[in-house]
Write a structure and sequence with these properties.
The chain contains three helices and 38 strands. The protein is mainly β and 474 residues long. The strands form nine sheets. Strands 12, 13, 14, 15, 16, 17, 18, 19 and 20 form a nine-stranded mixed beta sheet that branches. It is elongated, with a radius of gyration of 51 Å. The relative contact order is 0.06.
Length: 474
């Protein structure tokens, strides 16, 4: 790219003075090596523009161009006495980079870059900054950026959080991972002792500047303290590793989303656990009493369309060390009250007793209405086998009977009511008289049967004194 100071004016006297016209607003280029390869870039009305030469070759090297032309008049032009030589090389020049002398983490660092290019171009690889470009004479480009320093900028070692140790049956295996460039060495310290080198291999992922060191030992204990130290020419970093005991999964539990679904909605159950080694499979069971039926396997979640009788479930998490089941969990589902057919009202000698049995979740509020006698008592009982079923009991004197009683049940999802008619119950005296009468009649019936038997079935004896049954004509 060649800088032009003023606008070029098409002037045919150029050829008469033995100068070659390279680019003009009108006309053509007369030199074969530049024909069709030049473009005037910029706005000449602003007092400056650029001459762009495309597809340069080594043949263009050393060509002299007179870029400045002053318009004298319509028939004459004068050249500014300055020659620009085209320089074409096989390789691009290396950029010159300078960094501020003081370089501290979280401090400001200034980086400058200058390069001679044709055409000039410059970029920084760090995406955190916007690179301002400033052009300098003779094709040199200079740019400067300022940013907050990080450890990664110099690739000082930084131990990663996923570094840890695993323990099982007295054997411990530790892995220490870190970012480092150039590659770092990994040292170990156990229970506050001296540093020693890694007993296992050190792997390096050069494309990511990552390094991994391994240390293993027998006859150890799970409460040991292990520290890894990673260092290179830029510094070091150390980290106290957590020792994870290999065991079957623990703390297995079930979570539900949404937590309060209505009937017909879909819920997702998730099997939660703490496990090292990681869980490799899951199983889900539907539980009825002491029996369990497999629902789904090899997934940590289960989706269900819930109803009020969806029942209970449990999950099982499996890893290389064994398996653990969660506690049996009742799937939570909410619904409006339903009054069950077990509800009734009865009257006996001791008084009136009414029971209203309601299935609901959340538990419904039960109110008895159309009751004008104040001398009564109401209490609620929760079913021990199903906490969603509530039995409300109304007790009142016998004289309070008024034909029927109305049971109303309500929760946040709806309501239900039922009219309970009275059923007259027998008293204990009535039951005694009834069963006593039956006891008196039974002996009389038995005597009558025996009399009829002897009357219609006569007997005779044979010569040996045996009794023989005779035939009777009926």
């Amino acid at each position: 790219m060649i800088n032009l100071r003023t606008h070029l004016f098409l002037c045919f006297t150029l050829q008469q003075l033995q100068y070659v016209l390279m680019e003009a607003k009108e006309g053509t280029v007369d030199v074969d090596s530049f024909r069709g390869k030049t473009t005037l870039v910029g706005r000449t009305s602003d007092g400056g523009c650029c001459l762009l030469i495309n597809r340069t070759t080594i043949k263009h090297n050393g060509e002299d161009i007179y870029p400045w032309v002053d318009n004298v008049n319509k028939t004459a032009c004068a050249f500014f006495d300055w020659i620009v030589s085209v320089e074409v090389t096989d390789t691009a020049p290396r950029p010159r980079i300078s960094v501020s002398e003081e370089q501290k983490e979280v401090g400001n660092i200034n980086v400058s870059c200058a390069v001679l290019h044709s055409p000039p171009s410059l970029s920084f690889s760090d995406h955190r900054v916007v690179v301002p470009e400033s052009h300098i004479d003779k094709g040199q480009v200079f740019a400067s950026v300022t940013f907050v320093a990080r450890t990664k900028d110099h690739e000082k070692p930084s131990v990663l959080a996923n570094s840890s140790c695993s323990f099982h049956a007295g054997r411990v295996i530790c892995r220490c991972q870190a970012w480092a460039h150039p590659l770092a060495t990994v040292l170990w310290k156990v229970d506050g002792g001296h540093l020693f080198s890694s007993s296992g291999p050190v792997w390096a992922l050069k494309q990511k500047h990552a390094v991994t060191g391994i240390w293993a030992a027998q006859d150890t204990h799970k409460n040991m303290s292990v520290t890894c130290l990673v260092s290179n020419t830029h510094g070091h970093d150390e980290h106290l590793l957590s020792v994870v005991v290999k065991a079957r999964p623990i703390n297995v539990s079930i979570s539900q989303l949404p937590t309060s679904p209505l009937e017909g909605e879909t819920v997702t159950l998730s099997c939660l656990e703490v496990s090292y080694p990681p869980v490799i499979s899951y199983r889900w069971y539907s539980v009825f009493g002491d029996r369990a039926f497999l629902l789904k396997g090899n997934s940590d979640s289960l989706s269900l369309s819930v109803t009020r009788d969806v029942g209970q479930v449990r999950c099982c998490a499996v890893n290389d060390m064994g398996e653990t089941s969660s506690a049996t969990t009742t799937v939570n589902v909410e619904y409006a009250p339903t009054i069950l057919s077990l509800s009734f009202c009865s009257i006996n000698k001791s008084g009136l007793r009414c029971e209203c049995v309601v299935d609901s979740h959340p538990v419904a509020t039960i109110i008895w209405t159309q009751w004008i006698i104040q001398a009564h008592h109401v209490y609620n009982i929760t079913d021990p086998l199903n906490w969603r079923i509530t039995r409300s009991v109304l007790i009142a004197p016998r004289g309070a009977a008024g034909g029927h009683v109305l049971c109303n049940s309500t929760n946040e999802h709806g309501s239900a009511s039922i009219k309970l008619p009275f059923i007259v119950a027998e008293t204990s005296a009535q039951r005694s008289l009834y069963y006593g009468g039956i006891g008196s009649v039974l002996p009389l019936l038995l005597c009558l049967v025996l009399l009829l038997f002897w009357r219609f079935y006569p007997t005779k004896r044979d010569d040996d004194g045996h009794v023989a049954l005779g035939e009777v004509d009926l």
